[in-house]
Amino acid sequence: MGGKAVLGVDEVKSFEDLGKCLLAEFLGTMLLVLVGCGSCIAWGSEAPSVLQIAIAFGFIIAAMVQSVGHISGCHINPAVTLGLFIMGRIGLLKAVLYVPAQCAGAVAGAALLKYMVPDPLVKTLGATVVNNVITPGQGVAVEATITAVLLLVVGAVTDPDRNDLANAAPIAIGIAITCCHIFAVPITGSSMNPARALGPAAIQSVWDHHWVYWVGPLLGAAVAGAVYRLVFKAPKDENSYDL
What we know:
Blueprint: H1 3-7, H2 15-38, H3 50-72, H4 78-87, H5 92-116, H6 136-157, H7 169-188, H8 194-204, H9 212-232
Pfam families: MIP
InterPro entries: Aquaporin-like, Aquaporin_transptr, MIP, MIP_CS
Membrane topology: Multi-pass membrane protein
């Protein structure tokens, strides 16, 4: 792969096109944090269930993939951007610009959520914290694993050399997010997204073991991205499947 391909110069058709991509990443991440973290807030006498939170995150991400996927790819997650860069699906230039847009969107989403929610209900705004029965290292392992699951799914449903996908990406990615949240919400809060963790942490100043939510997802994404590219990538001459 040449230097221009790695940099992704050809991906940037115009400043207008790049601006649309960055706006899509900003808005997509903002709405992810607003709706997803909003589902973590207890409005009644009982806290929302793990299943409710998992479904909310899975559905809002599926909706965003359907809405802005054709504009920016709808990464809305620095770990996804890293994984797709390693897979060769996005150049370095866009990848470097996507991450600040995602982080800014996450902080904006958390700020908007805080504005919408009455003060007595504002506690952590869905901030992710490591369960005190595990170590931070175990938290990294959990976050790395669930992010790797996400990246394997994203890699598969966006593989340009597959012809059996139709419009599978929103549903498949949403399901992956939902099942990983069902597993990991009680353990780490199931961030699997450094920007999603950053938004509430920045607004509410909840920084306990925040590094876990960068190291774990980025590590899992990097490994899964390399595995998909080296092992699971569809062959270019794939036209049909033998039944």
